[in-house]
Amino acid sequence: MKTEKVEIKVLYVEDEASIRESIVEMLQRRITMVYTAQNGQEGLELFNQYHPEIIITDLQMPVMDGLTMAKEIKTGNKAVPIIITTAYNETDYFLKAIDIGINHYILKPVHFPKLFAAIDECWNIILLNRKVKQQEADLRQAYDELESRVEKRTMELTRTNELLKAEVIERQKAENKALETCRQNQQLMSIISSIVIGVSGNDLVMQWNAAAEKAFSIPESEVIGLPFRECRIHWDWDRLLHAIAMFRKQTTSTNLDDYWYVRPGGDKGLISLSINPIQVNLNAPAAFFLFGVDVTSRKKLEAQAILSQKMESIGRLASGIAHEINTPTQYIGDNIRFFQKSFGDIQNLLILNSRLLEANQSGNLFPELCGETDSFMKSKDMEYILSEIPLALTQSLDGNERVTKIMLAMKDFSHPGQGEKMLTDINKALEGTITISRNEWKYVADLETNFERNLPLVNCIVDEINQVALNLIINAADAIKEVVKNDATRKEKILIKTSQNGNWVQIHFNDTGVGITDHIMDKIFDPFFTTKEVGKGTGQGLSIVHDIVVNKHQGEITVDSDPGKGTTFVVSLPIGEL
């Protein structure tokens, strides 16, 4: 402890007045508040009244001895450090003190440096326990939030969901057990299931728990005392060292989400890291604890959910796309058969014309031959054939262009992509999604677009943004179906608009459908929430839209609805560079 007084409350219990006064005088030079008692009973009353942080007591005293008082106090508060000063050095007393949980056993006459060293150690334990409790609370809150998110996302998943839920529950049990049984930092490090690495102010590894050993396949004995940078962890060191430098400037906790590292098997995993200060010393770099949780499995589940939604969308669109392709394909086939038949008639006409030419050149042009040619042209209606062929060619080319457009749009949508962001033309992406979804809305709505020209490119995962657009278009079509129902002559309207608003690109999805009532408005983005009949909706569509826009692209999504008149979703994506 430093020479200046420390703000700490100490209870000193001693029945001999001279010893009590002597030690109290020494304590008051170093400690701000000292309470004194003459026996264990009086000491117990003062403890219950003032709640001192450290207790120093004699062993043999009238009314109530020091061990009895210590046992009473430890029964209610095991963490309170207790120091016994006594002239008795019998093993029996010492063993009883150990059994009760006494921190230090000092023989009289009291050696003040030894007493203050014991007080210093107890005070350091108190400070460390406070920090550990705060870290435990932070961890518990983090895991509570994680458990809540996982539970919401996986309500209807089967075996995988149950395993994940069990893992979270087991992790919570381990944390609760650590909170109940931890008395020292080393005990906490050995129990906690998260990765915990303690680094000193001069960047030496001072803590390395079992979870860190397992995650990185590096034993504690090989890293304790080494410079942190030399501990052989394979991960993004540049990003981590930058975060540590920023943390030391601000001396506040710093989080690193989706931080990659190499697992012992050689495959890459994702870990969520937090850097938390152990102490703040203005004269030296701050020491810190690095807490980590492997989130690889959770990220895979999220990716699987998006892929499942995408496959569901492709399955739903398949029959409609087949119908969209079948119509132009059918009239292309009809035109080809028309060309086939007409080619034969044209070929025969050319033969007749060739005979006429030969007869005319030889001077033997007979009226019968001219009449045969004229009769053939009339019977085959060659004038009609020659006028229809250009129209049929144009129609076939249009049909081929339509099929090509549909197939390219479907290819772009169904392509799995690399999961990496790239600069994307949002207008072009929307056009492709509108094309493949046409059969979903064309019978109930007229879809209009109002795309801003020269819209800035957006740095995004294009296939995920396509999924967002498709989900919102289908959502609009379904809302309109509720309005038109069995009226085949009635059509409502879907309007898709793009624009730039400051540093955002905004996409408006407006429909004149049934709208959203106020009592469910705050639930529409919840996983598995749906207003559709059983078998017609999984409740994942808008939840995935929200996750892609907000969590994966740091964007925003808002909704405005007038029940009975329609709904507008606005997706805002940040403009950024690669």
What is the compact description of this entry?
This protein has helices at 17-30, 40-50, 66-76, 91-100, 112-153, 159-181, 185-191, 210-216, 237-250, 296-362, 367-379, 382-414, 426-436, 438-441, 462-484, 518-521, 541-552; strands spanning 6-13, 31-37, 54-58, 82-86, 104-107, 195-199, 205-208, 254-262, 268-277, 288-294, 422-424, 445-451, 458-460, 492-501, 504-511, 556-562, 566-574. It has four domains: 6-110, Rossmann fold (3-Layer(aba) Sandwich), CATH 3.40.50.2300; 126-296, Beta-Lactamase, CATH 3.30.450.20; 297-416; 418-578, Histidine kinase-like ATPase, C-terminal domain (Heat Shock Protein 90, 2-Layer Sandwich).
Structure, explained:
The protein is α/β, with parallel strands linked by helices. It has helices at 17-30, 40-50, 66-76, 91-100, 112-153, 159-181, 185-191, 210-216, 237-250, 296-362, 367-379, 382-414, 426-436, 438-441, 462-484, 518-521, 541-552; strands at 6-13, 31-37, 54-58, 82-86, 104-107, 195-199, 205-208, 254-262, 268-277, 288-294, 422-424, 445-451, 458-460, 492-501, 504-511, 556-562, 566-574. The protein folds into 4 domains: 6-110, Response regulator (Rossmann fold, 3-Layer(aba) Sandwich); 126-296, 2-Layer Sandwich (Beta-Lactamase), CATH 3.30.450; 297-416; 418-578, Heat Shock Protein 90 (2-Layer Sandwich), CATH 3.30.565.10. Helix content is 53%, strand content 19%. The strands form 4 sheets. The protein has a 5-stranded parallel beta sheet. It has a 5-stranded antiparallel beta sheet with strand order 7-6-10-9-8, sandwiched between helices. It has a 5-stranded mixed beta sheet with strand order 12-14-15-17-16. Strand 8 and strand 9 (268-277) form a beta hairpin. The chain is elongated. The model has no long low-confidence stretch (mean pLDDT 79).
